Amino acid sequence: MNDQPDRKLDAKYSKVRPYSMTQAVKWGDCDPAGIIYTPRVLDFAMETLEAWYRDVLDISWLKLNQELHMGAPTVRAEIDFLAAPAPDQEVVTTLRVKKLGRSSVTYELTGCGDDGMAYYRATLVACFIARPAFKAATIPEPIRGRILDYQTACGDA
């Protein structure tokens, strides 16, 4: 596992590979002892995933829902808590695509400090659905192509 995000630019998307997002741990994210609340870690992962859809897949969740009449809800979430970041620390969450199915995608998101200390690793599984039926749907080809391109750029394909 590479603890530091790769800062090389991919010309096709002009984005950092693998995609990462930096978030600061605020005092309000923690209990009185200064330990981050468990649900905030999932928030960090989900906020990174949402930004990845927008920045890499070039589609917001709103557009996916309203224009394509689809969704990609998370159907499984697993988090390994490796260390606790303290208030005022920054966490860099890096996203990798581990598996691409017909209608599902498995993501691995790792949150690290700027010193490389790994705080958490989250595995999220999303299933593309057709709305309003809420039935599994094939990932549309333009989106699937971008996911495959991303995997290739990250060396995961």
Index terms:
157 residues, alpha+beta, Thiol Ester Dehydrase, Chain A, globular
Secondary structure blueprint with pairings:
Elements: E1 9-10, E2 15-16, E3 20-24, H1 38-55, H2 61-66, E4 70-71, E5 74-81, E6 90-100, E7 104-112, E8 118-127, E9 129-130, E10 135-136, H3 141-154
Description:
- With 157 residues, this protein is an alpha+beta fold.
- The protein has helices spanning 38-55, 61-66, 141-154, and strands at 9-10, 15-16, 20-24, 70-71, 74-81, 90-100, 104-112, 118-127, 129-130, 135-136.
- Residues 1-14 have low confidence and may be disordered.
- The strands form three sheets. It has a five-stranded antiparallel beta sheet with strand order 3-6-7-8-5. Strands 4-9-10 form a three-stranded antiparallel beta sheet.
- It is globular, with a radius of gyration of 16 Å.
- The protein contains three helices and ten strands.
Number of helical regions = 3
Please state the CA-atom Rg, rounded to the nearest Å: 16 Å
What do we call the CATH homologous superfamily?
Hotdog Thioesterase
Largest sheet report: 5 strands, antiparallel
Task: Compose a concise summary of this entry.
The protein has 157 residues and is an alpha+beta fold.
